[in-house]
UniProtKB/TrEMBL annotation:
The keyword Hydrolase applies. This is AB hydrolase-1 domain-containing protein. Residues 23-37, 90-99 have a biased composition (Polar residues). Keywords: Hydrolase. It comes from Populus deltoides. Residues 134-372 form the AB hydrolase-1 domain.
Length: 385
């Protein structure tokens, strides 16, 4: 405080030279001032020009030395204005420039940024596989749109991809409140499988409630399904419904229960027709590790979940559903179907193999698209035993 007071205390007057009249006066009061000031400015300008010339000469010398050290005498140097820093070709730097992601989140080691062709062994030809056709089935409230990253990665890798909009979902025109059975809800998927040529097989990938949907389809068309992959999905047993599965983790503080908003299109005296999810809780429930742009996409694209199919118990047999090879991909940071519930389903009906996506939320096609893609291709390549 003392120092502060000292700064503002009166100081002893200091004598200063008065400004010369050649700076403030005019040519009439100081006849020779104009020429003298012109000479001063000229001298300063000459000094400034000389300094710029020396700096430019030094920069040119350094630039020439850099070219000679890198074996380039062409006089040109590549510069990419799309990024602020690039290591030039042949610079000897150990760092490499990776393709840039449009996501603002930090990329973890569990979601490496790889090109699709890096995820397929070069000694394996797509034509030698049982099938290279992925059929992607979304979860409750989602649509085919949620797979956009997965579709792009798979197609770039040379695979065939079909993403299904279930009844009343995505851009399917049917009113969600009018879906009264699981068979009606899954009809777009079963119609697609029914129209496949004899002998043509697919790999079904189901997410969330889509797990129950692909199980239903596997019971009808086991000969058209080579493998089934459950991604944070409802993998039910015979006689079980999706509601039965979710009831295993019911609790007063359950985030899923807090987010549910029941729709009574037939009146409050009748059972609910659909379930909406509170948009203010979507990020915490489904996208807690996902980029903000994907959360925004989901918030304007998600539709209500038909209620009747959630209540319906599955009829699954060993000689149909049981003949299809099943694989499960766990999501470790899932708030909608927690890892404990996923493991409970796995223990109740063990699949052939289980994989885990570290750091993935309930929507790994958003939060871990590269890692999910890698696992899908890895499962595809697993040979028959």
């Amino acid at each position: 405080m003392g120092n502060l007071c000292t700064c503002f205390s009166p100081k002893t007057p200091v004598k200063t030279k008065k400004p010369t009249k050649r700076l403030q006066g005019n040519s009439q009061t100081a006849p020779n001032s104009s020429n003298r000031w012109t000479r001063v400015r000229s001298t300063r300008k000459d000094t400034h020009d000389a300094l710029i010339h020396e700096q430019a000469l030094a920069a040119a010398i350094l630039f020439r030395q850099h070219q000679q050290q890198n074996g380039s005498d062409s006089g040109s140097f590549p510069f990419d204005r799309s990024i602020s820093l690039r290591y030039p070709n042949g610079s000897g730097s150990k760092k490499t420039q990776l393709p840039r992601s449009s996501s603002s989140r930090a990329r973890s080691l569990t979601d490496p940024l790889l090109q699709p062709h890096q995820l397929v062994n070069r000694d394996i030809k797509l034509d030698d596989l049982d099938t290279n056709h992925f059929v992607l089935v979304h979860g409750g409230g989602f649509g085919a749109w949620c797979w956009y990253k997965t579709i792009a990665l798979l197609e770039e890798g040379g695979f065939k991809v079909t993403a299904i909009d279930l009844a009343g979902s995505g851009i399917h025109s049917f009113d969600t409140n009018g879906v009264t059975s699981l068979s009606q809800y899954v009809k777009p998927l079963t119609d697609f499988l029914d129209k496949l040529a004899d002998g043509e097989k697919t790999i079904l990938v189901g997410h969330d409630f889509g797990g129950a949907c692909i199980s239903y389809a596997m019971e009808l068309f086991p000969h058209k399904v080579s493998k089934a992959i459950y991604v944070a999905a409802a993998m039910l047993t015979n006689g079980q419904s999706t509601l039965d599965m979710f009831s295993q983790k019911a609790g007063s503080s359950d985030l899923m229960q807090q987010a549910q908003i029941f729709v009574y299109a037939n009146g409050n005296n009748h059972p609910p027709t659909a379930i909406n999810l509170d948009k203010s809780l979507l990020r915490d429930l489904l996208f807690n590790q996902s980029p903000g742009k994907d959360v925004a996409l989901a918030s304007v694209s998600m539709r209500p979940i038909p209620f009747a199919p959630v209540l319906e118990k599955l009829n699954l047999s060993d000689f149909k559903y049981g003949t299809v090879r099943r694989f499960y991909i766990e999501t470790s940071e899932d708030n909608a179907i927690p890892i404990t519930l996923q493991e409970s389903m796995i223990n109740s009906s063990p699949p052939e193999k289980v994989f885990r996506l570290k750091g993935a939320d309930h929507s790994p096609f958003f939060s871990k698209p590269q890692a999910l893609h890698k696992l899908l291709v890895e499962i595809l390549k697993i040979p028959s035993t």
